[in-house]
Each structure stands twice: as C-alpha cells, then as structure tokens.
Amino acid sequence: MKYTLCLIALVLTACMTGIGMLGSAHAENTPPSGFVAQIDLDGPIGPAAAEYVHDRFAEARRDGARAIILRLDTPGGLSASMRKIIADMLASDIPVIGYVAPGGARAASAGTYILYASHLAAMAPATHLGAATPVSLGGKTPMPKPLQPGKKPASSGSSSPPPASAGEDAENNKVLNDAIAYIRSLAQLRGRNAAWAEKAVRGAATLTADEAAKQNVIDFVAPDVASVLQQADGRRVRLGEKQVVLHLAGLSVRSYEPGWRTRFLGIITNPTIAYLLLIAGLYGLLLEAFHPGALFPGIAGAICLLIGLYALQLLPVNYAGLALMALGVGLVIAEVITPTIGALGVGGVIAFTVGSIMLFHNDVPGFGVNIGVIAGLAICAIVTLGGVMWLLLRSRSARSFSGDAQLVDHQGELLEPLPAGGEAWARINGERWRVRSESGTELPDGARIRARRRDGLILWVEAD
After folding, report:
1. Model pLDDT for residues 211-249, shown as the tens digit of each residue
2. Residue 44 in contact with residue 75, Cβ under 8 Å?
3. Which residues are within 8 A (CB) of 163 and not within 5 positions of it... i.e. 6 or more apart?
4. Which of 67, 77, 158, 436 has a CB 3.0–4.6 Å from the CB of 45, allowing a cystine?
5. 175-181, long-range: CB within 8 Å, 24+ apart, which pairs?
C-alpha cells in the first residue's frame, strides 16, 4: 500500500511538471498581447494637425493601445497648435514615442519642441532636428549678439536667458524668452540636454540623428518602427507621478489615419487655399451684384467667402493686410460705379496686392501665401482693368447707335426711280423710308444712296 501511494505521488508530480513545461513553452511562443498606435504628423503644424493628434490620442486610448508612436516629418508651424499637441502628450496616460522618420525627414522648429516633450525620442538615420527659434508676426525675432573678445559665454545650465538690451524689441524678447523657458522645462522633465535645447531656440542650432543621440537630445537612433519598439523595450518612463517599464518588443503596430474632417481642415487652413477662397467669394458676390438673378455666382461666392473667413480665424492673420484687401475691393467697386479713368481702380489693385502679401507671415514654416498666386491675380486684375479702360476710351469716339445719328452715313438702295425734286421709296439700314435727293437730281431705280439727314419722316439722301 505504501509503495502504491508513492508511485501515485511520483506520477502526479511528473504530470504537473510536464503541464508546467508545456505552459511555459506555449507562453514563450505566444506573441504578447496589445498593440502600438502609430500617428503620422507630416507637413506644417497647424490647427488641423493639432485636432488630428488630439482625436487620435483619445481613440488610441479607448482602443487600449500600449503606447503611441508619433512619427514626425515637419518644417514647424504655429506655436498655438504645437502647444496643444504637447499638452495632449503631457496629459497622456500611455507612453508617447516621438520618432523622426523616414530618412530625410526633419523635426524643425515646432517639431523640436514636440520631440523634446515625448516620453522617448528616436530618429531614423539621415534625419535632423533643430532651428527652433520662434517667429513673431510683429517682426523679426532678435538673435543673440556675438560675444566680445575676452568675454565668456553664459553658463549653459542657466535657466534664464540674459536680459534684453535697450535697443532690442521688448515684445520679440518676450516671445524668445518664453520659448527658451518652455523647451528647457520639457528637457528637464524628460531628462534631456537642456543646454542644446536653448541653443536650438536662441541660435537656431541643428543636429543630425547620430549627433542628437550622442548629446542626449534623443534616446536612440532606429531605422524603422520595429527597431524603435525593440530598443524601447525595458526602458523606464515617467507617466505622471509613477515610473513605468515599457514592454513593447514584438507588439503589432496599428496606423491611425486622419478622418475626413481633419483632411478638410488641412485643405482650407492652407493659407494659399484660404486666400483663393476669399477671392472667389468676393468675385462671386460682385458678379451677383452686377447681374441680379444669376444666383449661382452669389451662392457659390457666399459659400467660398464663409469657408475662407472660417479658415482665417484659425490662422495667424495680419489684420492690417486684411484691411488693405477690403480697401482695395472697395476702391475697385467705386471705380466700376463712378469711372475715374482708372485712378480708383489702380489704387484698389495696389492696395489689394499689398494687403495680400501682408495677410500671412511668410516666415512661419508652411503658413505663407504663394507669391506666384498673388502676382498672377494682380497681373490679371491689372490686365482686366486696362481692358475696361481701353473699352471706355474707345466708346467715347464710337458712333452713336440710336436716334438720327444711327441713320447718318448709312447706305441704302432706291426701290423705285427718284424724280428731281420728288420723293421715292428706299431701303436704308433694313427699313423702308421716303427719301428726297439732297442735290435735287434724278436717280434711277436700284441706285446706291447714302443718308444725310432726317426731316420728320423724310430722309434726305445723295448718290453714293
């Protein structure tokens, strides 16, 4: 009995050991659960990009993503939109990995701030980042003056930039100092190189991927997304007040594309498109005003104008430029109503062109109106105005097409013989008239005649 119980115990132990080994082997062969969300941020950073990132962050969180890869390839953009994206990243309860890719991509200007705000930062080979000096709509952002011989540079660990000199613009210095403090705070939060971050803002410094990794600006260089997940695996990141160890190796990647609303906003918030919508709206309403009842120009113009105005309130608009454009339109309308031989029209075209150039700030990456579009519209307006002026001047020397003047010098043909001192029927300008000879001579049937004057219902003619 004792041997039987021992045998049963040995068999049970062997079975349990085998089950455990099979379970371990199965766990090793089973891919890890969960996925990583990938959000692509390409092109200028504006309102549409900020809304896209916000919505896709929320969607990835609802779907249960283990992490988010924010792939960057941007020349920069608007500060307000950049700050919205960074606010979403800082509030995220899942790790965000900033990744500049593919090869040849960049994270310039606003993209540098976003990369610094990422929990982990990576770059593909042959990419670069930097040139994060802010651009103010009010003028040029001041750059640091070169050091005088014998003077030492300020400590790179200083959190406060040197005070502005009396000659520098105070408003621009406020923008610069605020940008420096902002990127330094992000660098300190993520444990990255704050000194170089200040250089990127103050002196528009740039780095390649390998240089950025060596200077602790990014965490690592990765050729593709799979390598990013592999190198991120096992790293610790801070999510709020807690430290989290990432387990991302082998996870699948799910791409989150922009929706139709984001694509639509991306189109209309392109400054060139917004500008053309304004032009189309104004021309449509003008055509409807001068041709009442046409309907289509008025309806299409109103839609284009409203969409253009909606886009303007999302973009950094220079209101002096907008006012000049409105003045230009008013002067052109005044020229049409009260012709002044082109004085008001030329002034309107000049005001509209200058306002168009001033409307958006071309130094903000991706947020300037194409100068070629403005030049083309200005040339078309000048040619059109010139053509209208030429037609007006020509009309002054043109013969009248109504009243007696319509008949003078018109040719005709006698329908019967015209006796000397008598009357006869003739066809002139498609009409039958009683005619008399101006010279009093007799004219045969079918003779060619020319009208000279009218006296009541009688035309006085002469042989042609």
Report:
1. 999 999 999 999 999 999 999 999 999 888 888 999 999
2. yes
3. none
4. 77
5. 175/134, 175/136, 175/141, 176/133, 176/134, 176/141, 176/142, 176/201, 176/202, 179/79, 179/132, 179/133, 179/134
